[in-house]
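Bench log, entry 3. Co-assembly request; chain sequences pasted below exactly as received.
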Amino acid sequence: MKINHLGIATNGIDEALKFWQGALGLVNVHTETVEDQKVRVAMLPIGDTKIELLEATSEDSPIAKFLEKRGGGIHHIAVEVENIEESLVKLKKEGARLIDEKPRVGAEGCLIAFVHPSSSNGVLLELIQKQ
Ligand code: ZN
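Structure output for the full assembly:
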């Protein structure tokens, strides 16, 4: 396993890029809207992992709700697994609370599923399997 990316909730990707790209020097290599999750994402590689900047595309987006409650910050950690179906079965068997019982398609066509923060010490966990 490895950390595929860290998701950061922002009030706007363009504004956030002024810091992450302009000031810090990372490079935005990919921007995409994920309709299913009502978010727009920007991916900035850093070493073996990436920073994923997240922006809400509608008022009922999970990112809009997160910003309302917490005002930005780290939204989730994405752990890359080899077989997401197997990981979900194991987590469920171990008593973890799953947000997604079945994988769905996320950014860059990867399979993803979220684990509820109540099972992982308050951190929203995204499982991700590259296609
Ligand atoms: Zn993510």
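The beta strands are 2-9, 30-34, 39-46, 49-56, 73-80, 104-105, 111-115, 125-129. The first helix runs from residue 13 to 23.
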